[in-house]
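User: quick one, sequence for these tokens?
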């Protein structure tokens, strides 16, 4: 999956100018960047919410083969968690295998919420349910926009295990956005750093630290925010 020479503006506001990046099929892809850099816009372009410029977006699956967990996903509040899970399951053509991490996530987090109506969930519980529901859909590409937003540090790790298991166990393609940079220390991730309307870096964490000439991820982030394109 590759983006070549992408230009994109919202009316007069330019978001991407000759943006180039690759996403790797058999690795977890993590988009990072400052607030307002364009991470969600990039996911919207990949999904097709915003019309994809065909010549710039190469080898991405079609919308019907992508499941996208939006930043603020919302559902009918009167449904219970069980009803929402069943709704997601009903959109699969057939029964699908689940990963060990999905089973653990269900047992540790979802099970005790199963008969709760969505309107009675806390923000973090709601987020956990939406990430779980997205993960049980059978698609070629999974997009998660800030799946750790509002999540406590224990469940953060369970969510990352769950997302990674889609890549490792199910051989799915996954692209997520992330603000919790320290989490990159424990992930085998391909990082795409969006800044200054370009991809300012792509590669793994040690390459990113090396490129920024530091062993501190926050310093690397600060140094790269305004760097020139990759
Ligand atoms: N529909 C829209 N119309 C006009 N401008 C928009 C629209 N959506 C987003 N923007 C602007 O585009 C820029 C990029 O927004 P985007 O949501 O992609 O950033 P982001 O990197 O995901 O930010 P954050 O980390 O805060 O979630 C922002 O300046 C935002 O104000």
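Assistant:
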């Amino acid at each position: 999956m590759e983006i070549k020479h992408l230009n994109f503006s919202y009316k007069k506001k330019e978001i991407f100018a000759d943006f180039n990046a690759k996403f790797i099929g058999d690795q977890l892809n993590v988009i990072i960047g400052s607030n307002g850099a364009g991470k969600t816009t990039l996911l919207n372009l990949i999904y097709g919410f915003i019309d994809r410029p065909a010549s710039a977006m190469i080898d991405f699956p079609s919308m019907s083969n992508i499941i996208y967990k939006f930043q603020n996903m919302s559902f009918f509040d009167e449904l219970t968690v069980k009803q929402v899970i069943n709704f997601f399951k009903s959109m699969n053509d057939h029964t699908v295998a689940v990963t060990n991490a999905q089973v653990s996530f269900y047992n540790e987090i979802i099970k005790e919420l199963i008969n709760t109506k969505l309107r009675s969930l806390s923000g973090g519980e709601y987020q956990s349910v939406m990430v779980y529901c997205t993960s049980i859909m059978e698609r070629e590409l999974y997009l998660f926009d800030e799946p750790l937003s509002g999540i406590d540090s224990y469940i953060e790790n369970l969510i990352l295990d769950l997302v990674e298991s889609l890549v490792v166990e199910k051989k799915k393609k996954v692209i997520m956005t992330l603000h919790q940079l320290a989490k990159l220390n424990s992930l085998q991730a391909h990082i795409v750093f969006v800044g200054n309307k370009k991809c300012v870096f792509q590669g793994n964490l040690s390459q990113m630290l090396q490129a920024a000439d530091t062993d501190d991820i926050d310093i690397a982030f600060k140094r790269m925010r305004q760097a020139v394109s990759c």
